[in-house]
From TrEMBL:
Protein name per its UniProtKB record: Regulatory protein VirG
InterPro entries: CheY-like_superfamily (IPR011006), OmpR/PhoB-type_DNA-bd (IPR001867), Sig_transdc_resp-reg_C-effctor (IPR016032), Sig_transdc_resp-reg_receiver (IPR001789), WalR-like (IPR039420), WH-like_DNA-bd_sf (IPR036388)
PANTHER family in the cross-refs: DNA-BINDING DUAL TRANSCRIPTIONAL REGULATOR OMPR, REGULATOR OF RPOS
Assigned GO CC terms: cytosol; protein-DNA complex
Annotated keywords: Activator, Cytoplasm, DNA-binding, Phosphoprotein, Transcription, Transcription regulation, Two-component regulatory system
Annotated organism of origin: Phreatobacter oligotrophus
Intracellular or extracellular location(s): Cytoplasm
Length: 239
């Protein structure tokens, strides 16, 4: 993990330099970018392992940067939000951001979030060769490939997952037919927000359902257990 490249994107120089210096102090390499265009230029030279991104920037805002980045890569993104509403933060999750923190953030917490996302992103190589032939787990209309970190459809096409989506699916795969509370799922998949606690996990489940359920409005594989959480039904359950 030490020495991996982290891109810090913020239009305010003091803020990005503070974060960059702190991450460098703890063994990471950093590239500092003042916006989406600078990030894309940096990525042309070297792909970062993770992006720390300010949500509120003039011109191309952070949501646009997340949408563009996640449309092309599976690089983990941690959003930093100062004045964004809970709805903006939820939108960030919906389009693929992996985690978020309020600004000004505690740098030790940011470091912990960075390390956690990098561990999750490294999960595919760590899960290769699982005993019992569990590298392929059926999930509704798709199959979760634990070693490749993707969903695969019946035609063999890969559907990339964000680190948090993969963490959630793996949690369900490891606990079939067991109710998992929102609190437990958030612990497994990261990202907490006291203003949008329940919605954060619900947004991610909705995003996953759109990928695996024949009818996302009537989920058969990831069921809502009212008042308790969610349950993965490997064979599906109508209703």
């Amino acid at each position: 993990m030490a020495g991996e490249l982290i891109a810090v994107v913020d239009d305010e120089a003091p803020a990005r330099e503070l974060v960059g210096d702190y991450l460098t102090l703890h063994g990471f390499r950093t590239v500092l970018c003042d916006g989406g265009e600078a990030l894309r230029a940096a990525m042309a030279a070297e792909r970062p392992a993770l992006v720390v991104l300010d949500l509120n920037m003039p011109g191309e805002d952070g949501l646009s940067v997340v949408r563009d980045l996640k449309g092309r890569t599976t690089i983990p993104v941690i959003m930093l939000t100062a004045t964004a509403s809970p709805d903006d933060r939820i939108t960030g999750l919906e389009i693929g951001a992996d985690d978020y923190l309020a600004k000004p953030c505690e740098l030790r917490e940011l470091l912990a979030r960075v390390r956690a996302q990098l561990r999750r992103a490294a999960t595919p190589s760590e899960t290769a060769g699982l005993p019992g032939g569990r590298e392929q787990v059926p999930f509704g209309t798709k199959v979760l490939d634990l070693s490749a970190h993707v969903l695969r459809d019946a035609e063999g096409r890969d559907h990339p997952l964000t680190a948090s989506e993969f963490a959630l699916l793996k949690a369900f795969a490891d606990n079939p037919r067991r109710v998992l509370s929102r609190d437990k799922l958030l612990d497994l998949a990261g990202a907490r927000d006291p203003e949008a606690f329940d919605r954060a996990i619900d947004v991610r489940i909705t995003r996953i359902r759109r990928k695996i359920e024949p009818d996302a409005d009537r989920p058969a594989y990831i069921k809502t257990v009212r008042g308790a959480g969610y349950m993965f039904m490997p064979e599906g359950e109508a209703g």
